[in-house]
Structure of rhamnogalacturonan endolyase:
Amino acid sequence: MKFFCSSLAILALLPSAFAAFGVTTSGSNMVVDSGAGLVTTSGLKIHTTSEETELAHPPVNTANGDITSMLFNGKQLQDSSKFTQLSSGLGSASVTSSVANNIAKITISTSTITHYYIVQSGVNTLYIGTFASAEPTVGELRFIARLSKASLPKGVVASEINGGTAIEGTDVFLLNGQTRSKFYSSIPFIRDQVHGVTGSGVGVFMVIPGVSYETSSGGPFFRDIDNQGSAQQELYFYMNSGHEAAELPFRTGFFGPYAMAVTTGAAPSANLNTTFMDSLGLQGYVPASGRGTVTGTYSGTLAGTAVTIGFKNSAAQYWIAGSGGSFSRTLIKPGTYTVILYQGELEAGTGSVTVAAGKTTTVTLVSSLSVPSVIWRIGTVDGSPVGFLNADKIETMHPSDTRMSSWGPITFTVGTSAASSFPMAQFKAVNNPTTIKWTATSAQIGARTLRIRTTEAFAGGRPQITVNSFTSAAPAAPPSIDSRGVTRGTWRGLNQVYDFVIPTGTLTASTNTIQINTISGSAGDGFLSPNFVYDSVELF
Ligand SMILES: *[C@@H]1O[C@H](CO)[C@@H](O)[C@H](O)[C@H]1NC(C)=O
């Protein structure tokens, strides 16, 4: 069970054996009574009928919508100095409430935001929806619960920064010899349905159904902050941000529904049943009856590599895993969408589909990726550096972390070196160049192409090659994203492909030396020097 109290207004809902279900306003606090607990002057206590559990909701501050108290089993879950809110707080807002059919709804409004907290009688989950007609001026849209560190000490270890020393920006820290950052709590949207923090006998979890990312940006593999352990235990749902945003402008409309669930410690189900919200008149909310389905088939992708089908237009985005050559994606809002066939995280083909409410539309997708018959390949053509040196660590630590393997520069020998020795990223000032040694047969020489695929670039970093005595032209700079990249724990940028033609007479039927250099017109030091992330290297 859970409930909130706030300084403005609070919701509390619970079984109704002990008190009346409803919402009351007292001074600047709005208190929601679940109906199963006791309401106290300082907030809300909720008793379930099955156990003597008290969940005090933070009151909702009626001047700005902040949640200022949350009491559960006698524990205050809310931090006492920094509150739970949208963005960095709404400043001032109109806060109203309504109760009907055992559902309490708190509506927090500004000129561009309508934010809802909804509680069902007897259920310890705060259902949330956020309508934004414009991007907040801070340039990101997030829900942040600033919880009590004492009550909820366990977050994501890689995101625990309290007492650390900043080593990059104001968001990457060194703590007890380990690099830490809120960015290292990020999980790709496609897998981030439940994340939370826990303490003794209590857990607080964000629940975000896959479809509830429809108004966010960046596609299925975009990752954003879930947690930071500072003086507070911060729990997030980032709806959009400039944290390596590869898809702009941000969408507007209804974000969610999502939820904050309070449990006795176990993670809640990812299957959040939001059907009861269909009739609540939420601004911008489209019920299941107003949505359609797309089914289809796909072919031509690399065997053994996961397939995802993505859908996007200016209003919404969706995705679904493909399996055995087919897929079915339900709950898509009406509209015309670009459909993307992903081989791993790499766009392999596209299509178009128009979705209508209550209808099923079909689409056929075929990979249009060039698949040459290669002489050799390093890595997998999947839009990710998975399998390369330090790729298993980069999502949860800074590249300078002493737990990382040495970055080199690396010399890789075709035929004997393992892919795990090939660097996942190449930094101009750290591990430049990467050298590939290859002993060719006479049948393998002549004019060839070296293809380098990358997943991300920073400060204009891209490859240029030297093969024996031949040096390639310098490719143009890749599209730039206004953000740090791999140093904040992600490889997910804009996939690029660089084809270098090696002229006849360059390769020899003995040992060849191929150097890959990071080049850029920009400068930078250390791991913030121009860099790129490898997907794969192929010779054909
Ligand atoms: C979801 O909730 C509705 C009532 O709001 C109920 O009718 C329906 O059976 C529930 N669905 C599932 C899968 O539990």
In short: The CA atoms of residues 140 and 242 lie 7 Å apart.
